[in-house]
Amino acid sequence: MPRYSVGIDLGTTNSAVSYFNLGDAQGRGSQQTMLGMAQLTAVGTIEEKPLLPSFLYLPSEQEFPAGSLGLPWDKKRKDIVVGEFARSHGAKVPMRVIASAKSWLCHAGVNRLDAILPWQAPEDVQRISPLEVSARYLSHMRESWDHQFKDAPLAEQEVVLTVPASFDAAARDLTKQAADKAGLPNITLLEEPQAAFYAWCEAMGEGFRKQVRAGDMVLVVDVGGGTSDFSLIAVTEKDGEVQLTRVAVGDHILLGGDNMDLALAHTVNARLAAEGKKLDSWQFNALTFACRQAKELMFADDKLKKAPLVIPGRGSSLIGGTIKADLAREELTRLLTDGFFPKTQFTDLPRTARHSGLAQMALPYAQDAGVTRHLAAFLTRQARALAAAHDAPANVTGQSFVHPTAVLFNGGVFRATTLKDRVIEVLNDWLAADGGQPVKEMQGAELDLAVARGAAYYGWVRQGHGLRIRGGTARAYYVGVETAMPAVPGMEPPIKALCVAPFGMEEGTQADVPPQEFGLVVGEPTRFRFFSSSVRREDRVGTLLEDVSGNDELEEVAPIETTLPAKGSNEGKLVPVNLQAVVTEVGTLELRCLERSGPGKWKLELNVRMKE
Amino acid sequence: MVGNNQAQTYSSFGARLALAVKCFLRTLSNAETAQRIAPLLSDRPEAVPAPQPEPELPPERKHASGLYMLSLLQREGRLIDFLQEDVTSFSDADVGAAARVVHAGCRKVIAGCLALEPILKEAEGATIQVPAGFDAQRIRLTGNVAGQPPFRGALKHHGWVTATVRLPSVSDALDPRVIAPAEVEL
Fold it and tell me: Does the ipTM exceed 0.85?
């Protein structure tokens, strides 16, 4: 029997662990416990901190004194460094540090099981796969836990691991694999915006009912270090009981707080360069850090016209080597408030088309930095989807975009009240233009640690306490079916999409078996193109969509494949099969081939790489 | 930890009686035992054998945590660089800019390791009472120090005390004499 519910926030830039004693009769209120994680903060120095920076450093053999990279539970560790020191030293040795592993884990343009990180590192630097990096972070968290809770190992606890709501089936599957690799075979996945909502519920206690009522549509705006993630949660009432349903999730947008600090740093750097002052990469890092502090200083005090930035030189001459600059209020407003949260119309959509599924190599950062434009795209697309659905959990009649009634903010970016106010202001402008009522901000959100805390709370909710958010999968899934037509040289036959997993499948359920039959050749690998849609709520299993190319409701994800194992003499034999989708208790999607006239059953692997 | 007989408390009469009889018999039968017991019964304290002195550590090991604190202040706040630099040739503005680096970094270190608070909560300049039996560690009297407490006086400096001490743990593999390693960029 697990004694604790443990929430793990495996973040793009920081990770955190919170825990909840399952013996407790009620939520922890605002006192939500975090696990201190011992980590190297300098050579030979161990400190315990509630945040584990998601950075991994691969030291060369002679780089550090023998024994100086040891951890309390592994004194002889020398091959990798995880956490604070990996981050700070990595700034001086960029080719040996791995950052943003999570963004690589959901990047279908590369093989996520291949040892490709650090990206473009020189030949002699050891490389590891995005999956392995995530597993290493999780291992570090497990070891920290086990070191402190010797009689209650983490593998035996109720572990809830969070993923962005926008993670597709393959990225979720890889996250689960990383947990397996890290010695955590029993986990449950939870979407981060939902976790933030749970944390808020727990912090509010019973006061939660005062702020949220039936009929409310809560928009969760989660801007983390590296990603922006949106979710809509509808509050309804049935037989006098409040119900929460996660209605929709947004696309994966690689745009976050780190981009904002970088935008400031690049601007100041350009100005310094014009003055003939050149910064090396370490100094640029120091500048980014200084910009973040100046930003927080100015956002906290509206009267400050500018904030000083000082970038120390790397030599021992501190006074002589220090470069001075200022960050002006006007720059802050122009770059961050207006740059990332521009005042736009709800009809203004992000400047580039959505990620089209073309193989891309480096990380596919968002082309448009306007978070509000991404938000507009999300709300308008979902309004169309909800209007088309017959049993939608929310009524969007007459709404050009989904009208939220309340906003829950998450992510350190929103420590800046100015930015929260801007999002509210923009939403209210849209609502006024579309005949809606103004939104309110849900007060009392914990911005930095909410995801880990909410995940821990969710483990307790799963045991039958408190209110649970329903909703099932936020996507429908399709496999590509080639249409039979006479071969035309130079022309690919059009592909139809067969729905195998409808929108909203609950955990632990399996979909119906579509009647369509496929022939699989025993012993030969078979590949299916694989598609998902976050807006097609109505498709049932077996629905066939004509011609996927040009259908902007579908997004191609990495293909799935299987090889039917050969037994004896049946190699090369054609076996008719049906496909069936299952959503596991963990929260991952599994596809199976069922033998048409026999007991055969094979799992299809979600592939880790897009077709070349 | 109670791991052997010497740590027994002898609170019961029976236990004491057993020991007394044992002493009586052994002292009577064995000259060496008598020699060892005699000093324990003496009134002269110097007769008690002195504990073995700890082996002398080299100064850098003895003061390792002090040196470590300096390396921490150097790493985060460049304190040693600042102190070792000749400030006379620089303008106040330059020194001021560097001071920001030192201030921000060292402050972070102090906040991380210590929980500092004033010893006296009253505002500086206020007239306060120093009661009889005051803690001379925490309160220093200056000026016209005469007579008996309670004293009345003006609070000149509120003092600092740390409620907690929390230094990072440092590996023995490190040489504490190295405050900051040389950096060579390849």
Answer: no
